[in-house]
Amino acid sequence: MTVVRARLDGADAELGQVAAADVARLILGLERAIASAAYVVLGESRRGTGRHRQAIESASRLRFVGVESGSVVGILALPESDPSDAELRLPVPHLSALAFEQVLDAINGGAPRTDPELAAAVAGLAAALGIGDRNTSLALTSEARVATGDQPRQAVLDAGVRERMHRLAAQPQPVGRDQALVGLLFEADFEEETARLRLPDGGVVTVAFTPDLADDIHEALRSQARLDGLVRYDSRTSQATHVELRAVERSMQAPLDAEAFWRSESFATLQAAQGTTGHVDPTALAINDLTDRERADFLAALDA
User: For the whole model, what pTM was predicted?
Assistant: First the structure.
């Protein structure tokens, strides 16, 4: 069982004084943030505004384990079992732990880029709890790594973080759609799992890929390639800026001789150029599924 702690600090945040509604808001808001982070971990974008698909719900559903005295510390547990529909390519406990780490990274500002939907979820959690108003802060701690001898990870959601999350969530979000981009894959960072694709019009697109696609990226590097994935566009210029990669195919294109394309050659000329007579010797054919008698009858029929 992976335990996480959520400590709410404020004038009325002690056990016996804290509003029950704030405890409920804490748990529900944290679940929303973990669900948003799970999409980031999977490299997917949420479609629509309805319910999350079953796999994401399973990965973000917290269990209430207990509470500690003093400033209210909710002791929660991340999910332990897989969803019945087996939608995920990661086990639910692994996805839950990675998603919670994403939440901590977003709050601490350690992520190279924060997903706008994740920022909105964290900002919503802070707003629901009145962080910076009736409550001072919310400290989140993960004990997922304690078993390996590492110190628990912690992130503190305070008024400054709340404002930063609001700014990130309010930034214009580029439009995205599933499609393919073709261009020159000219740069890759295998530690950050990013690459750069130069389009035919000279534009450059950032490519985010998962570890299972690293070999494909390496093979296609410095060559023309077709990239399939979720392509995001700048909302103002409509230029492609980012692609979340799902598949890569290296493009092999033979040089085109414009004069030869329009030249009309006779069949005999083509045969001579390719060194072939156009005749097939039936006895040289591999017909492995025939008996000797059946083969002889077949060849005799051809000569008739």
Answer: 0.55
